[in-house]
Amino acid sequence: MTKHQENAHFFTIVDTPGLFDCVREADKRISNGKVQELLNECITKDITHIHAFAFVFSISSGMNQEDIQSMIFFQTNYPEFKKFSMLIVSHCKEKNAEERNNVIKELFQHPAVVKCKLREYFGLGVFFTGSFRSELRNDPNLHAATNQITNILKMREQLLDFLVSREETYNIHREPRTVLVPKVVLRRFSINTIFMIIMAVIFAFLAIIFALLAKC
Transmembrane ranges (predicted)? Predict the structure, then answer.
């Protein structure tokens, strides 16, 4: 943000640990259950007004089974995120608009994605991002750099304009039914149970009276 900007926008970005953690040290891996626990803690206590949940998928590594399972995990455990979820495809700096659309078509034609109707889960749509290839540092190429920066700026502008225009936020505490914030449920008592409670109160009251009379 520069000083002369009048309508500045500030973003709070929470980067959660990824599902199916595969760090080399097994004792340092975070289980999916722990990731879910951290996410629940965040949305219930830390950041309670959220404009968007983004699932980031790297085009360079391709769509794998764990990516699909991660999507299904969120679709199953957080169906209420549907209206606030977006898919962000990264590493798209060398692809034009037509090529990016082809990537999405191919992604959503995957049998598992079609079967689970994962496309419908991303209610906010699909966006793209990218950054300069590291190779440009050691092997400068003006044409490649120009092409990449053109694509990068267009993609970022589309994503940022969309986020800035967002007004509706997700707040778990507004959810009428949520497993994360259980409602207080009044227990139903039978007539016999109610009668026993009343009698217990009466006997306790009489015991206090008799105790007071005994002292007189």
Answer: 194-214
The domain tally of the chain equals 2
Read off the tokens for 120: 């419908």
- Provide the whole-model pTM: 0.70
- SS3 for 37? helix
pLDDT digits (tens, 9 = 90+) for 146-164: 888 888 899 999 999 999 8
> What range does the domain containing 77 cover?
26-174
DSSP string, 38-91: HHHHIIIII---BS-EEEEEETTT---HHHHHHHHHHHHH-GGGGGGEEEEEE-
Residue 169 belongs to some domain of the structure: yes
Separation between Cα atoms, residue 132 and residue 110, nearest integer Å: 29
Q: Which residues of 140-159 are buried (b: 16+ CB within 10 A; e: fewer)?
A: eeeebeeebeebbeebeeeb
Q: Which two tokens stand for residue 150?
A: 């053109």
User: Does residue 62 come out as left (phi exceeding 0), alpha (psi in the -120 to 50 range) or beta?
Assistant: left
Note the pLDDT tens digit of each residue in 113-146.
999 999 999 999 999 998 887 777 777 878 888 8
Residues 6+ apart with CB under 8 A from 50: 43, 84, 169, 170, 171
Burial of 85 (0-12, 13-18, 19+ CB in 10 A): buried
